[in-house]
Every structure is written in structure tokens, then in C-alpha cells.
Amino acid sequence: MRPVRLMKVFVTRRIPPEGRAALAQAADCEVEQWDSDEPIPNKELERGVAGAHGLLCLLSERVDRKLLDTAGANLKVISTMSVGVDHLALDEIKKRGIRVGYTPDVLTDATAELAVSLLLTTCRRLPEAIEEVKNGGWTSWKPLWMCGYGLTGSTVGIIGLGRIGQAIARRLKPFGVQRFLYTGRQPRPQEAAEFQAEFVSTPQLAAESDFVVVTCSLTPATKGLCNKDFFQQMKKTAVFVNISRGDVVNQDDLYQALASGQIAAAGLDVTTPEPLPTNHPLLTLKNCVILPHIGSATHGTRNIMSLLAANNLLAGLRGEPMPSELKL
């Protein structure tokens, strides 16, 4: 009896246990993993992907034409442990008939929770306040000391009312937000109805919002969307939060807006590049809170993401429907 030919699978990082276990139990696959929590060097990535039938990757791996050429004709499936796919050369992947799996929905709640946490942390100046306790700046109660901005009666503008944008609005509504605005490629009346959210132009959203939350995908249309003109249209008391992708924001323009008092504060979970260099000008500002891209960082969410990524990969290799396939 002829032995069954195993399909070669390459995993670009040490992934959470549930996904790892699913791959280990796949009798029809030979799995090789870059066994580290740190990003894989390019040379190792090229070596590992050569001849592979399936690739399980993260946002940090750029899957471009060169890497696809290195992989060769065997490559049938790419599964990314992310919602974002801007690290994948989708046109080239489509040309080669390669299927793509991704992990939408499962990180919506965790990311929305983080967005609300970041907004509250930024608008109530919590990092500054904690530092004042530590450095002796806390002396006595003062009427205006450490005052920030509250959500009650406010207008919140959401750029991109997708799954995560809706989940953020759902969580902010009980804080007493008076009005929700949103912008995007097109109106979404059905989704907006829950929050009585108004579809407006990007300039109107910037001008009328007390809080701006960016949750859109990174596309050619959204790259650099939040720039000098955008920040100049915002209120001086407004707070800006980005949990989408760093490239949606022109960071030089954001720095100028924050340093000059054009806007009150900013909270970022995403930057360009990632990690942000420790000498970056944004890190010198008290009114800018920056987190290390931890939107989906709960134990439960990351395990579910890894399992979905593994199941997408295995289904694709076996010619079955993927639980979450990106339609190219």
C-alpha cells in the first residue's frame, strides 16, 4: 500500500495552544513552526515556505510576490491569524489561485473593549494622573488640576461602522453619549439604527465630534485619511483614538496637532512603524497615550483566533469550505 503523501505546512510563529493542538492532530500534514514569540527573519521565512502547501502567518509577515515565488506552485492556502489582510499581496495571491483564510468576528469584543479602555484612559488623562502620584506632583485637591473630558452628552464620531465600530458604539451608549456620527464608503442604515447614528462626510465628522474613533480598514482610500486638514477641522477639546491601522494616520500631522493644542489628546493602539521607536516625538507628549497593538490581547480571544486560523488552513488544504474564507 502506497503511503499517503503528507502536506507541508509552515507556521511563522509560536501560536496559542488551541491552534497548535489542532495542527498537531492533523494526520495528513507535516507541520513546521518557527518556534519563537519574536517575528521570523526573512531568510528563515523563505526557507520555511519553500515547497509548502499551506502557510499560517501573522500580520508581521509580508506575503508579497517574492515570497510567493519562493513558496512555489505547491502553495494552495494562506491562513492569517488576523482580521487585517493588508500584509498580503491579494492581487498576486488571487492570480495564483491561492485561498486565503482570516479571523473576523472572534476579536470584535476584545478589540471594542480595548478601544473604550483607551478612550477613557486618554480623555481622563489616567497615565498622567498615575505619574503625578508617583513623582510627588499630587499635593492637594485643586479645582482644575488633571481635568479631562467626559462622555456624558458628547458626540462620538466613528470612522468605519463595521463590526468593531458597532461594538464600540454599543459599549459607549450607556455612558450617556448624546449623538453618534459615522462615515465610510456608504451609509449603513440597518447597522446605524441601533445607535441612531448619522452618516456624514469625513469633514463634518471631524468638525462636530468630541471623540473620534478610527475603526476602518486600511485601503488606498483610507491611507493618510487623518492628516493636517482633518485635525484642523477637529475641536480643540476633541480626543482622537485609532485602533485600526497606523497608516490611516499621518503621524507627523498628529504630532503637530497635539503639540500645538489643535486637539486635546490622542490614544493609539496602532502606529507606523510597529514597534514605534522609543525616541519617536509622539512619545514625548503627555497628551498622547500609545499602546503596543493589544486590541485582541485576551487569552480567550487569542486562543480562538489561533484555532480558527488552524481550521481555515486545514479546511483549505483538504479542499473543504473554510470557517472564515476571504473571498478574492
From TrEMBL:
Domain D-isomer specific 2-hydroxyacid dehydrogenase catalytic, residue spans: 9-326
InterPro entries the record matches: D-isomer_2-hydroxyacid_DH, D-isomer_2_OHA_DH_cat_dom, D-isomer_DH_CS, D-isomer_DH_NAD-bd, NAD(P)-bd_dom_sf
Record keywords: Oxidoreductase
Pfam families (UniProt xref): 2-Hacid_dh (PF00389), 2-Hacid_dh_C (PF02826)
GO molecular function, one term: hydroxypyruvate reductase (NADH) activity
Keyword Oxidoreductase belongs to the record: yes
Gene3D superfamilies: NAD(P)-binding Rossmann-like Domain (3.40.50.720)
Domain D-isomer specific 2-hydroxyacid dehydrogenase NAD-binding: 117-295
CDD domains the UniProt entry points to: GDH
A cellular component term, taken from the record's GO annotations: cytosol
Highest taxon in the source lineage: Eukaryota
UniProt similarity note: Belongs to the D-isomer specific 2-hydroxyacid dehydrogenase family.
Protein name per Swiss-Prot or TrEMBL: Glyoxylate reductase/hydroxypyruvate reductase
Organism from which the protein derives: Hipposideros armiger
Name of encoding gene: GRHPR
